[in-house]
C-alpha cells in the first residue's frame, strides 16, 4: 500500500513506558517529511511477498478470530470497564514453527485498532503498525492477517494504536518448536500486567496527563511522589534509574488481581516450563518461586544462558523450574506497594493454596 500523508502527531513521548507510541510518532513524522521514493520497498511489495514465499513453511494453517470490543473485567468482585479480545488475556494462540496463522480481527470498538504480533519476525504488511505497515482497522471493520511464523518462541499480540495495549487487548502467541526435545512435564503461560483501566482512569486519560508534562519531572534526588495518575521521581536501583511515570493501582497475573489470584498446580518434583510475558506498559517485574531456582532457557524465542533475569519488554523468559510452593511477581519500583501472587500447591498436598505477599 502507499502510505498516505499522516496527520501531524499531537504529542511525541520518548519515555520508555510509551516506547510503542513514540516509535509510531517518529515514523509518522518521517512519513510526513518525506514523500515515498518510487524504489522503496512497500510493506506488501514484491520483495516482501518473495521473502514469504521463500520461507516455504509447513503449509499447516491455524486460524483465530480476535474481536476487539468493550467488556467488563472482574477484579475480585470489583468491576472495571475495559477493552479486550473477549477475555483478559485473550485465549492463547498456539502453532508450530513454519505454520501459517490466519487471524481475523474484528473491530467492535469506537476507535481505530490493529494487531501487532510482538517479537515475531514476519512479513511487513502483517506487522500491524498503522499507518506504516497497514491502514488502521476502522470501527466496525475487520482485517485478515495471514503470515508464516518462522521462529519458535513465546510471543504476544496487542494493538499498535494509541495506548490500547494498556487496556485488556492482549494475549499470548506461542510458536512451538517441533524439534525441541522437551524434558518438562507441564507448561504455564504467565502474563504480567500493570493495570489501571477502569479502576483509577483510562490509559488515554493518563496519556493526556503525561502529555501535559506532569509526569516528566525526574531528577529530584530520592524524592518521589504520585500526582494524579502519574509518578514523579520514581526510581529503581535494579533498573538503574527511572522506575516509570504512571501510577498503577494493580498488578495482574493472567488478568487476575492479588485478591483473586491465578492458580497453577504442579506435582512435587516435576519440571514446569514457564512462558512469561510482560504485557505491562510501564513496569518491569521481578519474578520468583519461593525455595526454587528458575533456569532461564530462552528469551525472545532464542536460547539464553544465564540464571537470573528481570522480565522487561525486551526480555521474555521461558523459565523452567522444579515445582514449587508458591510464586510471586513484584515490581522493583520504589512506589509500587502491591505485589501479586500466583498460589501453587503441590498436588500431593491438596491444602488450600497459599498466597504469598511481601511488602515492597
Ligand atoms: Cu509489543
TrEMBL record:
It holds the Pfam family Cu-oxidase_3. Residues 80-179, 243-305 form the Plastocyanin-like domain. GO terms for molecular function: copper ion binding; oxidoreductase activity. Residues 339-353 have a biased composition (Low complexity). Residues 1-32 form the signal peptide. Residues 328-360 are annotated as: Disordered. The keyword Glycoprotein does not apply. The keyword Transmembrane helix does not apply. Keywords: Copper, Metal-binding, Oxidoreductase, Signal. This is Plastocyanin-like domain-containing protein.
Amino acid at each position: 500500500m502507499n502510505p498516505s500523508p499522516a496527520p501531524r502527531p499531537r504529542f511525541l513521548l520518548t519515555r520508555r513506558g510509551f516506547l510503542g507510541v513514540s516509535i509510531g510518532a517518529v515514523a509518522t513524522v518521517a512519513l510526513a517529511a518525506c514523500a515515498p521514493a518510487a524504489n522503496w520497498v512497500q510493506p506488501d511489495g514484491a520483495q516482501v511477498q518473495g521473502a514469504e514465499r521463500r520461507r516455504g513453511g509447513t503449509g499447516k494453517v491455524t486460524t483465530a478470530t480476535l474481536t476487539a470490543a468493550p467488556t467488563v473485567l472482574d477484579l475480585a468482585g470489583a468491576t472495571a470497564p475495559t477493552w479486550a479480545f473477549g477475555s483478559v488475556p485473550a485465549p492463547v494462540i498456539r502453532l508450530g514453527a513454519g505454520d501459517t496463522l490466519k487471524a481475523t480481527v474484528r473491530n467492535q470498538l469506537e476507535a481505530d485498532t490493529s494487531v501487532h504480533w510482538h517479537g515475531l519476525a514476519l512479513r511487513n504488511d502483517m506487522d500491524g503498525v498503522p499507518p506504516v505497515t497497514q491502514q488502521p482497522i476502522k470501527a466496525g471493520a475487520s482485517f485478515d492477517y495471514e503470515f508464516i511464523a518462522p521462529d519458535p518462541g513465546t510471543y504476544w499480540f496487542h494493538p499498535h494504536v494509541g495506548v490500547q495495549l494498556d487496556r485488556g487487548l492482549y494475549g499470548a502467541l506461542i510458536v512451538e518448536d517441533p524439534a525441541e526435545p522437551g524434558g518438562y512435564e507441564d507448561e504455564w503461560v504467565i502474563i504480567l500486567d500493570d493495570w489501571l483501566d477502569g479502576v483509577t482512569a483510562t490509559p488515554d486519560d493518563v496519556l493526556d496527563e503525561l502529555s501535559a508534562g506532569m509526569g516528566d519531572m525526574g531528577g529530584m534526588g530520592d524524592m518521589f511522589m504520585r500526582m494524579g495518575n502519574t509518578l514523579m521521581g520514581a526510581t529503581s536501583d535494579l533498573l538503574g534509574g527511572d522506575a516509570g511515570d504512571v501510577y498503577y493501582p494493580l498488578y495482574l497475573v493472567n488478568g487476575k488481581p492479588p485478591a483473586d489470584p491465578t492458580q497453577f498446580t504442579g506435582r512435587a518434583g516435576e519440571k514446569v516450563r514457564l512462558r512469561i510475558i510482560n504485557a505491562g506498559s510501564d513496569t518491569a517485574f521481578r519474578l520468583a518461586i519461593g525455595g526454587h531456582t528458575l533456569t532461564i532457557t530462552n528469551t525472545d524465542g532464542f536460547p539464553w544462558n544465564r540464571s537470573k533475569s528481570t522480565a522487561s519488554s525486551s526480555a521474555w523468559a521461558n523459565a523452567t523450574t522444579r515445582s514449587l510452593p508458591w510464586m510471586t511477581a513484584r515490581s522493583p519500583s520504589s512506589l509500587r506497594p502491591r505485589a501479586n501472587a500466583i498460589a501453587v500447591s503441590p498436588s500431593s498436598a491438596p491444602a488450600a493454596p497459599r498466597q504469598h505477599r511481601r511488602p515492597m
